[in-house]
Design the sequence.
């Protein structure tokens, strides 16, 4: 099997900076994110560097979570003082 490698120029959405990056995809799997030397930032933060790990983390949420209480119910985690201020 041939090692298909593709470099994709894009930006990193992990922080406000929107750093220019080059994503490496090997055999259809996102494997690396590197800073784009032609982008004004010319760098990438640790959030961006960890992007491939976050994408393939087995504990990552893959669908929206469902609420276990009705909208009209008060969140039990709120303290009494906060609850009384809301009501």
Sequence:
């Amino acid at each position: 099997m041939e090692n298909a490698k593709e470099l994709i120029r894009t930006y990193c959405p992990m922080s406000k900076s929107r750093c220019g990056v080059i994503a490496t995809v090997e055999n259809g799997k996102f494997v690396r994110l590197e800073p784009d030397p032609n982008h004004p930032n010319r760098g990438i933060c640790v959030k961006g560097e960890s992007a491939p790990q976050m994408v393939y983390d087995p504990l990552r949420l893959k669908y929206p979570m469902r609420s276990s209480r009705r909208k009209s119910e008060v969140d039990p985690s709120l303290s009494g003082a906060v609850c009384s201020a809301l009501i």
